Amino acid sequence: MRTEAERTATGPAGQVAGRAVLAVPPRERGMDDAVLPADYQRIMEVVRRADGPVMVKQVCGELGIASAPARSEAMRAKLNRLAERGWLRKLVDGKFTTTL
User: Fold this and answer.
1) Per DSSP, what are the bridge partners of residue 97?
2) How many CB atoms lie within 10 A of CB 93?
3) Secondary structure (3-state) at 96
4) Rounded Cα–Cα distance for residues 41 and 46 (Å)
């Protein structure tokens, strides 16, 4: 059984056929974002529509999420998870952009 720290570090997991699977899988060539959970698909759409790299506050605003620290940190975690798994690219200034 995984500890809470391990679950947080690797992202949300679910069960499929008795096996643990990541809710946000690593991106592979030809993979569509339809494999992502709905909230991550909405994040991807916001980043894709933007004129350039986006900040966490911009994504929160576009999705109608309050910019309170707890909410923005949760969004930052989701954006980082997408970047870690190859769906987005995180720039050195902390902004996010699509990898395409």
Assistant:
1) 89
2) 7
3) strand
4) 9
* Token output for 59: 């994504």
Q: Residue 53 is encoded by which pair of tokens?
A: 């790299």
Whole-model pTM: value is 0.77
pLDDT in tens, the chain (100 residues): 333 433 333 444 555 566 656 789 999 999 999 999 999 999 999 999 999 999 999 999 999 999 899 999 999 999 999 999 999 999 999 999 996 6
The 3-class secondary structure across 29-88, one letter per residue, is CCCCHHHCCHHHHHHHHHHHHCCCCECHHHHHHHCCCCCCHHHHHHHHHHHHHHHHCCCE
Here the tokens at position 17 are 């056929």
Closest CA to 35 of 49, 46, 25: 25
Of 24, 94, 84, the closest CA to residue 53 belongs to 94
- Residue 58's identity, in one-letter code, is Q
